[in-house]
Specification:
It catalyses: GTP + H2O = 7,8-dihydroneopterin 3'-triphosphate + formate + H(+). The protein is α+β, with helices and mostly antiparallel strands. The protein contains ten helices and seven strands. The model has no long low-confidence stretch (mean pLDDT about 90). Bound molecules: guanosine-5'-triphosphate (GTP) and zinc ion.
Length: about 210
């Protein structure tokens, strides 16, 4: 698919201009898939399944209704001049690959060096969640988290490393369980300064060695 084709919608267009079907339409789509799988949606064990699946979608894809930039608005300046690296490592995330709608399960490691204000650490994890709970490719998820932190907090730099197991690779297709995809986005001083990057990697440990 050529995403530069004007007929192909970009991510932001796709999420803002699409009208949502009703809950009943969504449940009917699940019944169609159940029939496609070869089962009978009218049998007792499957009667409530469409409603459960739709409730599951509300949870798995709640990120479309969340605003990551708004999550970062409250910051704290009283940190006694602390201007060193802040790292949150091993943030579990659960996402879905946009090619197969299969789970991507992994860990995010997020670091930044504040300029004059810090953000509550739970908000870093909330931003990871808000972008995870959407259809994703790992590279995009990685870039979105890093770019949002950089744009809103305007720190000296941001580092985000993601590890993820893609169930589209482990449970279907090429069938390679245990494979972890590692991606990283380095911005500001993390990109420019090798020592800063090395300090961050030291804090999170080498993802590949920790599997
Ligand atoms: N770069 C990248 N690739 C991904 C991600 N998630 C899934 N993929 C890959 O996306 C590709 C889609 O390839 P296609 O050939 O269109 O789909 P497919 O026929 O189902 O391919 P197979 O998975 O190889 O069976 C596959 O190679 C997936 O492994 C991701 O987050 N990043
Ligand atoms: Zn996939």
């Amino acid at each position: 698919m050529n995403i530069h084709d004007p007929k192909v919608k970009s991510d932001s267009q796709a999420t803002s201009s699409v009208s949502r079907p009703s809950r009943e339409e969504a449940e009917e789509a699940v019944r169609t898939l159940l029939r496609w799988a070869g089962d009978d949606p009218a049998r007792e064990g499957l009667l409530d399944t469409p409603a459960r699946v739709v409730r599951g979608y509300e949870e798995w894809f709640r990120g479309y209704d969340e605003d990551p930039e708004a999550m970062l608005q409250r910051t704290f300046e009283e940190v006694a001049g602390y201007d060193e690296m802040v790292v949150l490592r091993d943030i579990r995330y659960e996402s879905f690959c946009e090619h197969h709608m299969a789970p991507i399960i992994g860990k995010a490691h997020v670091g930044y060096i504040p300029t004059d204000r810090v953000v509550g650490i739970s908000k870093l994890a909330r931003v990871v969640d808000a972008y995870s709970k959407r259809l994703q490719v790992q590279e995009k998820l990685n870039a979105q988290i890093a770019n949002t932190l950089q744009t809103v907090l305007k720190p000296q730099g941001v580092a985000v490393v993601l590890e993820g197991e893609h169930h589209c690779m482990s449970t279907r297709g090429v069938h390679k369980p245990g494979v972890s995809m590692v991606t990283s986005t380095m911005l500001g001083v993390f990109r420019e300064d090798r020592e800063t990057r090395r300090e961050f990697m030291g804090h999170i440990g080498n993802p590949v060695n920790r599997l």
